[in-house]
Queue: 2 jobs
Job 1
Amino acid sequence: MSVNSRATVGAAILYCVVGASAFLILPLLISAAAEDFSLNETQLGYLAAAAMSGSAVSAALTIFWVRRINWKKTMLTAMLILGAGHLCAIFADTYSLLILAIIIASLGGGTAYSLAITILSDNKNSDRVFGFCIAAQVSFQVIGLLILPTFIESGGLDSLLTILASLAFLSLLAIRFLPASGKEVGISNVLLIFTQSKVVFALFGCLFFFFNVGCFWTFIGRMGVTAGYSPQIIGNSLAAGVSVGIAGSLCASWLGDKYGRLRPLLLSAIGTVITTALLSSSEALVIYVVAIALYNFVWNYSLVYQYAVVAAVDNSGRGVAIAPAFHAVGAATGPAIAGVLVMADNFMAINALVAVSVIISFIFFIPACRGEKI
């Protein structure tokens, strides 16, 4: 199969969605675990970190093999690990075993996501297909946030884990549409990627951006609980807000690099800071929904350009594959730190971390974009 074929693009997008599925519905996963295991905010922060730590490790290792081994066999292995990890989590009867099972699942998910993103980066219209990929992920979020609370109310965390495992195993049907390998690359020593200063700046921009995402996405559901909203209202609010993220990713796909890539990243950073100001100013439901909507628009709008920047400044062909590792490190570190700082259901520290980290992220992208027509 060609990396430019529609079937390959569709399959790669599917594996991006399934690989990131647990993170995409993280507020529901966190809330269900909190109820079933009676966890406090610090433990929930560590659980969210576990959901990303395996992804960080597996995505980091991607640079060593992504241009060397068979992509079909690798995706098969990744999906089996992802599904098996979620099945193990169903049988976990202690917090420690749950953490371990989630880490195993995230190892498979991180591998699948990094490989799928690499396949899309080889496409001749990478900006456009990245946009479609992010839109698909947000669509999954919306559907999940609307439908899954019903399953959680009746079956708890186990019902959610069963669905995630089933998605991993069913997605194996699409492996035949993947190519066995991608384009030839110019750098054989994979570690030389870190000698490209612009790539390093871009990757750290990715890390700090997802530091803010990890903080926000882990605790936004808990903010709703503290405000007194029911699980269904929170789920509907998240779905309504998240659905706006589809517009953000499609907007980026439509605009491409018409206005460069630094300006869209700046607009996204500004939008994120505005979101934190809204959440800090009021607990009204309308403010809660508007803040989620704005955040998800700029999150998904920005993500398209982050991948595009890394792909544009990297000549190793591996930068995009390792970008999810930096995303995962940020997403794991953010909630772990934020969970410790939350005091008596006061989430001001979370909002501060979100605002500061997105500003740092943009600062890193400035030298990454300098001097390039990107």
Job 2
Amino acid sequence: MKVEIFSDIVCPFCYIGKRRFEEALEQFNNKEKVEKVFRSFQLDPNAPKNPEENIHATLAKKYNMSYDEAKKMNNQVANQAREVGLHFDFDKAIHSNTLDAHRLSHYAFEEGKMYEFIERLMKAHFTDGHNVSDHQVLVTLAEEIGLSRDDSLQVLQDEAYINEVEQDISLAEQYGVQGVPFFVFNRKYAVSGAQATEVFLEVLEKVYEEEKENAVKKETKTEYCDGESCDA
């Protein structure tokens, strides 16, 4: 079973949804048969790499609300994160451009460490207050999970993997993705948003049972030949 997860690093519900999906996997008896792939998505492609305002001010401007209202909204999200064991510190969070982080995640994918890198990026943003568009921050995070610091820096300097990011975003458009997180199971079923753990578990079991049924049908097919043609 293949699960494609469209998400952005600075999306709080992507981190919460990731945890709920992981909780569902822990309850799923066949989790070793699930392949997880993160797909790049940018909520704000025009976000600056070195923002001059904090995340409360950015949110207030985006939704035309007061600073205090934005802070209250962020606190409510932080409370949801706490329910799944995450600590969000929005007072330190820096809402910056995520293109370079996504590019580096594709390098991590080639090294078999994309899932670990996405986790480290999200923690760096929401908990540690790091700017995930800063190249020195990114290569340090990459090094922490076992990637080459020098190779990571080269990827960023060469602007590598831009095509891969754009392909993911194009795929999201084909799926009609309007927001993230967005989970696609075997390119047939989708779960939009940070749904409850039970929802993810239900879909995992449904897809797995369908795969088993399809496997049985394939094994029991009989070929019928008539003249010069055969039908399976």
